[in-house]
Design a protein that fits this description.
heterotrimer; A alpha+beta (170); B alpha+beta (784); C alpha+beta (290); A: 170 residues; alpha+beta; Ubiquitin-like (UB roll); DNA polymerase, domain 1; 2 domains; globular; disordered C terminus; B: 784 residues; Aldehyde Oxidoreductase, domain 3; Aldehyde Oxidoreductase, domain 4; 3 domains; seven-stranded mixed β-sheet; five-stranded mixed β-sheet; 34 strands; 28% helix; disordered N terminus; binds flavin-adenine dinucleotide; binds FE2/S2 (inorganic) cluster
Amino acid sequence: MGQSITVTVNGEKKSAEVEPRLLLVHFLREKLRLTGTHIGCDTTHCGACTVLVDGTPVKSCTMLAVQADGQEVTTVEALAAGGTLHPIQAAFKQEHGLQCGFCTPGMMLTSVALLQEKPDPTEDEIRWALSGNICRCTGYMNIVKAVKSAAAQMKTSAAVPEAATAATRS
Amino acid sequence: MAVETPLKGNIGDSIKRKEDDRFIRGKGNYLDDVVLPGMLHMSIHRSPFAHAKIKSINTEAAQAVPGVVAVVTGALLAQHKLAWMPTLSGDTQAVLATDKVRFQGQEVACVIATDPYVARDAAALIEVDYEVLPAVVTPQNALKPGAPLIRDEKEGQTNNHIYHWEAGDKAKTDEAFAKADRVVKLDTFYPRCHPSPLETCGIVADINPATGHATLYMTSQAPHAHRTLFAIVAGLPEQNIRIISPDIGGGFGNKVPIYPGYVVATAASLLIGKPVKWVEDRSENLISTGFARDFHMSGEMALSNDGRMLGLRVKLLSDNGAFFADAQPTKFKAGLFHIVTGSYDVAAAHVEADGAYTNKAPGGVAYRCSFRVTEASYLIERLVENAALEMKMDPADIRLKNFIKPEQFPYMSATGFEYDSGDYPRAMQLALDKLGYRELRKEQAEKRKKGELMGIGVASFTEVVGAGPGKHYDIAGLRMFDSAELRVHPTGKAILKLGVKSQGQGHETTFAQIVTEELGIPAADIEVQEGDTDNTPYGLGTYASRSTPVGGAATAMVSRKLRDKAKKIAAHLLEASEADIEFDHGKFFVRGSPSKSKTIQDVAFAAYTDLPDGLEAGLEGVTYYDPPNMTFPFGTYLVVVDIDRGTGQVKVRRMVAVDDCGVRINPMIVEGQIHGGLTEGFGIAFMELITFDEEGNCLGSNFTDYLLPTSWETPKFEMGETVTPSPHHPIGAKGVGESATVGSPAAFVNAVIDAVGHLGIKNIDMPVTSDKVWEALNKVGAAE
Amino acid sequence: MLPAPFEYHAPKTMEEALGLLDELGEDAKVLAGGQSLIPLLKLRFASPAHLVDINKIEDLDFLEERDGTLRIGPLFRHKSAERSSLLASRYHVMADAAPQIADPIIRNRGTIAGSVVHADPSGDWGTVLLALDAELVLRSKSGSRTVKARDFFSGPFSTSIQATEILSEIRIPAARPQTGGAYLKLERKVGDFATVAVAVHLQMDDGKVGSAGIGLTAVGPQNIKAERAEAALRGARLDDATIKQAAALAAEAAEPRADHRGSIEYKRNVVRVFTERGLKRAYERARGGG
Ligand SMILES: Cc1cc2nc3c(=O)[nH]c(=O)nc-3n(C[C@H](O)[C@H](O)[C@H](O)COP(=O)(O)OP(=O)(O)OC[C@H]3O[C@@H](n4cnc5c(N)ncnc54)[C@H](O)[C@@H]3O)c2cc1C
Ligand code: FES
Ligand code: FES
């Protein structure tokens, strides 16, 4: 039996009829075709599915789509709003913070929320904040560098793209 | 953000990766992102038992679930001669079990449905009546007389023994041992682990019932080889098969084999006439697809009193699981294990290997290494550590004493490898300096007086990568060459098509840079394509760090081929003789008058518009490169650990990694590869483990138990490099994707042994968990 | 891994939620953070016919000290505990435990109350509450009752809560001056449950132990309150001998099982070592240090 929900996804209201058991990650990937959110495990360990729900990182494989009714969900697709890369995206590329790219959307969204809470994190704070997102490729070294460099960038640039701020507002 | 670097992309330029733009926007196209009209979903019912006879399978309830289109069983496949398939090592493997199940998690039946949730609901309703048989879970038990016969369906197979294989010179080795002053022994087990890339394996099989064309989207590290194997297994005409390997979310060897799920999805698409998608769960990935290692090793090293290594003797016992499906060259039953003499000048060595069937998942793959090289490197580096310990020598000094010297290259090893180049003392010295090794030894001595446990681990690995040459190395009979096709368009932009397939290694950037170096076309103007068999030249794929050694060489060679033709065109344009034309970084000019020149772009345009008489139009070419030898990257890794005597916890305080992989095409990407490899090595050393209970139940079937390091526990790496080019590679590069996974586990374990060796503890097998460390300490009365 | 079908309810008030539970009984499960329940649904280890999601009910996310009691609401999440300056300054054992639960993203949703009701013997919060001598308020349509944490747990994943009840408040005696605590957890990596963990809560009076709470994680069928160790500390001076004795008693209270994380002897030893270290750290903090 379907249940109707309305979720604000990347700033747009999306209404759908869903089965209660549908996981948020499948709602995003299958129903809305936002395939930047990935699935890497069955047990809530990997964080490849991380999205922001009302600005907070959540593992979308461990939340029901019906629970997101009335809430705001931000996925990786919203980061480069208007085509301008969010500083975190630019930094991941600049510092070689990704290889296969599978963990990258989750990593970036967790990082965005971290920088929102702590604009100038230490290396240990970054490693701690990202410890719910597994990367098999990079060994985390360059991911940490990327987050640091994005932090520096966001501090100096007065003009963070408007949409990007909207995407990370909590 | 920082301005994009203006570098053109020559060799040595750390240009930013071309592929990143789609990934950082969430616009990668991975297997699970592929959606086709009318696509159905498959879910697999798997065996709960490690060994059991199948008495009956009842699929009625599953069939009845609304949305279920078909249920496929082994019996159905058998009608199409598809119930069994060949493995990469010439054995057979059940696609869906018909007679019995031989490991927990084995594929028994598949549901095809309109929705993945429904497929899952129905798969749970399949009822199988099993008669449970005793399971065999160790190779030692498997080889005991009277052990339950696992492969009873194989004609002539009367026990669980698979192969016996030897390398090296037994008589000479026995002689070396007879003359030795000391013999150091080590029995160690390299446990079963799993590459577990973040993306699991999957397929979307799309067979057009009208034309018979099969388009198979697959997470494949070797799409061309897979096409050929599919043609053979499924009996489809090869020209009708197109394999598309989309963006891959990590491979590490996991995506080399063909898995039963691929075959069933393909068969189902053929039978139903609609596309069928199957994407593994993580637990399916861990319990049924390509594991790695599971190798029991006994090593003996003969030494002189002053610490010279004289000989090496090794006995191996391999646990291959229920089907011998190792991904390795057919000639070498224990892969390239016989590289076991490592970085040392050892005159005599002999290796004996046996393989056994057990009731465990099949499909040994080389988790980020060339097959069995990691095991070999681990064994020799652990043996050297123990030799140093027993002879009271410094672990760095004993290595320096025994290294193959720079002037000995090319060096022929006792087991028949010709090492191309190396300077081992230089790499080690750099690592020791970076770490401040001698100072730390003093700190360690001080700490030891206070009863604190600190260790410094040393490992100086030598790897062998980049298979072929094709006369020695093959995959399922296919020679291990690789290919590159380069098309330079009239406007001077180019497309490079490769037989290899990136899984995150940055091919779109690195390979473009090789063309940039050879032809002068900026990397930004070169599109690199891989993974679509209709669209790329035949190649053996990406694993065993072979892309740069083989595919990279092919790229350099095809670029040179085009450069030769371009020279002819330039001569025509410059009205000079071809012999007088010189080339430098994208410019052709007449010798002696560099101002009279044409750019590669001018020449490319002329190749389509203004040709000398008798020359074919176009600037395109293809090369198949069969390397004359493998390449031998090396390096030294140093690890500092502190151990808590109360809990046995090991804390990695520092790690220094000095790698020499020859010429670095894109140093940024090379470092990234090493970071990743070190982290996987760290995981293997301390936490990654797939083990089984006595009944053959898999313990380690999801990330709750199969532990992967996070950013928090992963050490911070301090990097260093030396460059000793490969003399036979066109640009002097060696492979680097795997060195760190090969070399680092021994460095971590040696650090632990270095901390506790003086207490009489000589070995702790991986993963070195805190309880094992504490138990070892407790045994010698040194625990808190 | 996909859940089996169920019906979903998102009541807006506590009364509505309790009404639903009353009506649905054993067929329903409360959904709080979902960080234990949803994984179970996905693995199909649980397949309730109804979920009653309490996340849409207002005012359940609270932490406050009132009338000599620290009160925690059912939607107070791990992440809030991790960031609470109140807990950091006066409830060290909670502040220590919070960042060691699961991983940062799971902590964004998981709740303390959900954790306690889930009653995983390897879960951390139950142990912490045992050390703190907490009380649990269980509400149903017909009223509410209060249960001591030590009477609440009855075995692995089992407690005295009824299917019709909601854990509506956790109550902890407010910390007095000279209180110190610590939570030591041995885990194999971030995101792992404890192999062994020990919670210590000390209340010092005039240089002597006024009261002591010691809880043990993952070394028995449920979270354990090491009562003999607590008793041995009460009224004693915290010298080395006392600490060693209490640690030995705590180790005795543990009933670990051997598994791939370690032997019985190993786990007992870690309990002993952690109790010693925890007592020292708690003492330090009670005296205003660390
Ligand atoms: C990968 C992973 C690692 C983890 N590691 C740890 C760890 O190290 N330590 C640890 O302690 N926990 C760990 N957890 C569990 C986590 O802390 C959960 O958040 C917690 O166990 C459950 O809280 P929840 O709010 O998510 O509850 P839910 O999952 O929503 O519910 C859990 C159970 O409690 C019931 N319930 C919830 N709230 C109430 C209520 N107010 N009244 C009545 N019944 C209720 C539900 O019906 C259900 O049976 C881990 C979880 C994961 C997925
Ligand atoms: S998919 Fe792994 S945590 Fe969600
Ligand atoms: S980049 Fe591959 S998993 Fe992180």
